[in-house]
């Protein structure tokens, strides 16, 4: 077995053994006093819930290679895909405790630590993927939010990868307006806001594990689901829900999180290199996402799916009340308004 594979296996076992352990700065075996030392390699574990063929893995792998090369091999980031280090809920705890150093987690996970993150996970916040990626790069907009978990949870939010534009797909008929969703059971993520999102659009929200969606639609438990084109095609949901309706109700976001104490321990030079290469990773991921989305649409059509254009203005209008219902503080409302003001479509 190659040395890198042995190291990954050892790291996986080490993380598994720390599940019940209490928080400790060096729980994962990383000596913060020697990170970046020119006489040794600092190994960093990065958890991902996607496969090796997913745009997230590809962009992260290239990021890790560039960072290692630019630091003369003093840093090596090992990526663990396919939830090898645990579910997203678990890896979030592992980063806090120090068992692992970095992870990609969905926006709804960070809501559990700070409700202010729901602003970036809300329908109507971002008008497009381009708007989303521009906003999360702007420290004037998101700097305070991204640093809000550093003291309480030892988490620095570095940036994010788009989840693409989410749409509703249905099993029996296409949609034109929100009225067509009346009585339909639509799978949604386990989030109060996302449940309300489906309700406002006229459907009956049904929280369910992602892996159960196919059989639930096939058996009639669900009438459809909401997701992006890539997930729709790769999970073969087009086989049981052939009508893909471009509601474009939400631009989803995954976050890159990192141990705050590790980030603080990095030298200024290494941290600058890290940030430069991470920004390139976000750009590459967005480009890969566009390519994969185009391919996913072509593959789904070839498999018999119909891509149907809805009355998007009607769906947007239906979702307008969600901001008033879920933005409960002056900070949340201010952040939402500031992000909306940067949308090119609003200017």
From TrEMBL:
GO terms for cellular component: outer membrane-bounded periplasmic space. PROSITE patterns: PROKAR_LIPOPROTEIN (PS51257). Pfam families: DctP (PF03480). Residues 1-25 form the signal peptide. InterPro entries: DctP_fam, TRAP_DctP, TRAP_DctP_sf. The keyword DNA-binding does not apply. The keyword Signal applies. Keywords: Receptor, Signal. GO terms for molecular function: carbohydrate binding. One of its GO terms (biological process) is transmembrane transport. This is Tripartite ATP-independent periplasmic transporter solute receptor, DctP family. It comes from Corynebacterium uterequi.
């Amino acid at each position: 077995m190659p040395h890198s594979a042995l190291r990954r296996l050892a790291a996986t076992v080490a993380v598994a053994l720390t599940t019940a352990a209490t928080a400790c700065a060096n729980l994962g075996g990383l000596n913060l006093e020697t990170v970046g030392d020119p006489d040794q390699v600092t190994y960093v574990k990065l958890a991902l819930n996607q496969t090796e063929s997913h745009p997230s893995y590809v962009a992260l792998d290239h990021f890790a290679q560039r960072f290692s090369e630019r630091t003369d091999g003093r840093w090596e980031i090992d990526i663990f895909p396919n939830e090898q280090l645990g579910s997203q809920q678990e890896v979030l705890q592992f980063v806090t405790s120090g068992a692992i150093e970095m992870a990609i987690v969905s926006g709804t996970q960070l809501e559990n630590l700070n409700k202010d993150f729901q602003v970036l996970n809300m329908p109507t916040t971002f008008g497009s993927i381009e708007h989303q990626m521009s906003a999360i790069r702007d420290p004037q907009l998101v700097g305070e939010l991204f640093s809000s978990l550093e003291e309480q949870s030892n988490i620095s939010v570095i940036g994010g990868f788009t989840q693409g534009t989410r749409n509703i797909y249905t099993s029996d008929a296409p949609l034109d307006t929100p009225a067509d969703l009346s009585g339909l059971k639509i799978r949604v993520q386990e989030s109060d806001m996302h449940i309300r999102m489906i309700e406002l659009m006229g459907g009956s929200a049904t929280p369910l594990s992602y892996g159960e969606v196919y059989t639930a639609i096939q058996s009639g438990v669900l009438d459809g689901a909401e997701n992006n084109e890539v997930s729709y095609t790769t999970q073969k949901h087009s086989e049981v829900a052939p009508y893909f309706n471009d509601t474009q109700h939400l631009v989803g976001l995954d976050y890159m999180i990192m141990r705050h104490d590790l980030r603080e321990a990095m030298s200024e030079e290494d941290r600058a290199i890290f940030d430069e290469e991470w920004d390139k990773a976000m750009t590459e991921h967005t480009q890969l996402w566009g390519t994969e989305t185009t391919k996913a649409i072509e593959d789904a059509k070839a498999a018999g799916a119909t891509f149907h254009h809805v009355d998007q203005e009607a769906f947007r209008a239906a979702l307008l009340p969600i901001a008033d219902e879920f933005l409960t503080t002056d900070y949340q409302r201010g952040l939402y308004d500031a992000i909306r003001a940067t949308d090119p479509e609003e200017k």
